[in-house]
Amino acid sequence: DYQVGRILEALEATGDLERTMIVFHSDHGELLGDFGCFGKRSFHDASLKVPLLVRYPEKIDAGNRCDRPASLVDLMPTFLGAAGSQSGEEIDGEDLVSLADGTCSRDEVFFHYAGGDDALWGKIDSKYKYVWSAPDQKAFLFKRDDSPETTNLAEQQPERCASYDTAIRNRGQGYAVSIVKAGARLVGRPSGPVRP
Predict the structure, then answer these.
(1) What is the pTM for the complete model shown?
(2) Cα torsion 85, 87, 89, 94: sign
(3) Of the residues 14, 37, 89, 135, which has the fewest C-beta atoms closer than 10 A?
(4) Do residues 68 and 126 touch, judged by C-beta distance below 8 A?
């Protein structure tokens, strides 16, 4: 914290603070006894949800809070947008400015962890988090406002789970395509196993 303060003081002293984008984030949370687990390998919010704070006075009002799903893949388009540039190719992610100001039409974020027998595949939108767990051969569906995610709605809402599973597959999750092309086994979701 002290070192961050020094950077902010230096930016202010040089007159650059108001024209500098500052992003604070983490790559993952930690389970510290949550659900009887330790470590980061989980789809629960304690592990998956991380701080993502953006200070960008030119584009984002101070105190603005955005509850739409965001991902670390949104950082690259955000930095490119701030630099007035583009990637030149199709990329995942959205400029966080468009999430903050409400002009972004995306309402979902996809994620995965590992592959094969250890894979977790998921989708988060404004209302639900869906996860297919290969190790458990089980679907999990939580309302986003169910904290600490104790009520699995998957058995009560199989149609929603099926639509989320389809969205993950249709997303290509380029992951699945690359795993199959590499000759590895992708453990299937409720609609059955996918094998090369």
Answers:
(1) 0.76
(2) negative
(3) 89
(4) yes
CB 139 within 8 A of CB 190: yes
Q: What is the dihedral of CA 177, 183, 185, 186, to 10 degrees?
A: -10
Determine the average pLDDT of the residues in 32-60. Answer: 81
Q: Helices 173-181 and 158-170: crossing angle, nearest 10°?
A: 60
Q: Are 163 and 123 in contact, with CB atoms under 8 Å apart? A: no
Instruction: Quickly list DSSP for the chain.
Output: -HHHHHHHHHHHHTT-GGG--EEEE-S---EESGGG-EES--SSHHHH---EEEE-TTTS-TT----S---GGGHHHHHHHHTT---SS--S---HHHHHHT-----EEEEEES-GGG-EEEEEESSEEEEEETTTTEEEEEETT-TT-----TTT-HHHHHHHHHHHHHTTHHHHHHHHHTT--EEEETTEEE--
Cα-only R_g, the chain: 19
Tokens of 102: 């409400």
Q: Which two tokens stand for residue 170?
A: 């249709």
Average pLDDT of the segment spanning 76-97: 87
Asked whether residue 126 carries a pLDDT value surpassing 80, the answer given is yes
